[in-house]
Amino acid sequence: MSWIENRLEPGVLVTSVDWALNWARSNSVWPMTFGLACCAIEMMATGMSRFDFDRFGAGAFRATPRQSDLMIVAGTVTYKMATRVIRLYNQMADPKYVMAMGACTIGGGPYFKYGYHVVKGVDLIVPVDVYVPGCPPRPEALLEGLMRLQDKIKARTIAREPEAPKAQPPIPLA
């Protein structure tokens, strides 16, 4: 969370600030260079001139988690690699987003039944915002996932959530 989130009441000013912050955040997503298997080849193809991640404001692939706000987990996540994924996720600055790309990342792929070493879905270790299915997913699917992530970012608000009414204590039955 940033320093301004959850500090303002909803209203006209907040709506304008929301629009400006969300526009800037959604059009300047910096993904982290992080590929684990064959899905990474499709992720690299998405950055090339034919598909051009740059036109969506996400072309600056960063090599360090401290400079990125989107982790695209592309490929099979093993239990040995899971600790590294968690470490990289924790090093990312807030707000941070995760995109699960490919069948192996989402649910273990063809290895989930007999592979004792494969995590059965990256959402078991880090919170996932967008799922991009396929084996491997085409670059168009990754672009669609990026557009869905941008829609999710644009829907955020910095206003305080309204407080839930306090629950009444149960009435003892006599």
Could you tell me the mean pLDDT?
Answer: 81
Strand order of the largest sheet: 1-2-3-4
Q: How many extended strands?
A: 4
DSSP summary: helix tally: 5
Radius of gyration: 19 Å
Query: How much helix is in the residues?
Result: 25-40%
What low-confidence regions span 5 or more consecutive residues with pLDDT below 50? none
First-last Cα distance: 48 Å
Describe this protein's structure.
- With 174 residues, the chain is of the alpha/beta class.
- 33% of the residues lie in helices and 9% in strands.
- The protein is built from 5 helices and 4 strands.
- The chain has helices at 12-26, 39-46, 79-91, 103-107, 139-154; strands spanning 31-32, 70-74, 97-101, 130-132.
- A 4-stranded parallel β-sheet has the order 1-2-3-4.
- Helix 2 (39-46) links the parallel strand 1 and strand 2.
- The longest helix has 16 residues, at 139-154.
- It is globular.
- It starts with 11 loop residues before the first helix and ends in a 20-residue tail after the last helix.
Search tags:
174 residues, alpha/beta, 4-stranded parallel beta sheet, 4 strands
